What we know:
Layout: E1 5-9, E2 34-36, E3 43-50, E4 58-70, E5 83-97, E6 100-103, E7 106-111, E8 115-116, E9 119-120, E10 125-126, E11 131-132, E12 134-139, E13 142-147, E14 161-163, E15 168-169, E16 178-180, E17 184-189, H1 194-202, E18 208-215, E19 224-225, E20 232-234
Parallel strand pairs: 1-14, 2-20
Antiparallel strand pairs: 1-13, 3-4, 3-14, 4-5, 5-6, 5-7, 5-17, 8-11, 9-10, 12-13, 12-16, 15-19, 17-18, 18-20
Amino acid sequence: xxxxxxxxxxxxxxxxxxxxxxxxxxxxxxxxxxxxxxxxxxxxxxxxxxxxxxxxxxxxxxxxxxxxxxxxxxxxxxxxxxxxxxxxxxxxxxxxxxxxxxxxxxxxxxxxxxxxxxxxxxxxxxxxxxxxxxxxxxxxxxxxxxxxxxxxxxxxxxxxxxxxxxxxxxxxxxxxxxxxxxxxxxxxxxxxxxxxxxxxxxxxxxxxxxxxxxxxxxxxxxxxxxxxxxxxxxx
Length: 235
């Protein structure tokens, strides 16, 4: 089971939306869910933070943003089925113990879709099992993102990170079921929906794509974008 780090994507109404975040991906007249991928290599999904109120002994304070970016170098251009990757950037590593700062904040930028190899550090041998560094869970408190490393000493962004925007919809997920993020794929796909048809008229001569989410874990239902957030990409 995954360890103690959790990214809480709040579902409570009125929490707020991303402030000046997704708008960085386009012009002022673009809808906020539209990403000009040729102009900006990052598509921000939400501002997040970790500043827990339920910890008295030791905790991590951080401010970060979750974003998508192209996964690998594209030699023949961005097109259908181009893969994307989920990342987090921001200031973390600020550790507080019994009210005293023991480590100061520093900047970090890391993938949320890494696989942890199953190696025994003491013996230098493989255990034959790997794990995802992060996974989405559905708990009674909402949707969380758990990280496999344990304890505040090894944390960078913290274990109770709250995001201001609900960008995923995991309503069909069973309680306590999880998705390994290293098994999740984000990729560009053509979508001829009515919204894209309107955008094609507005952006004549440009390619319009949706972002499809898939998982290679057997028996898992697809992860969906939230109803009020359907990202589109123009090239």
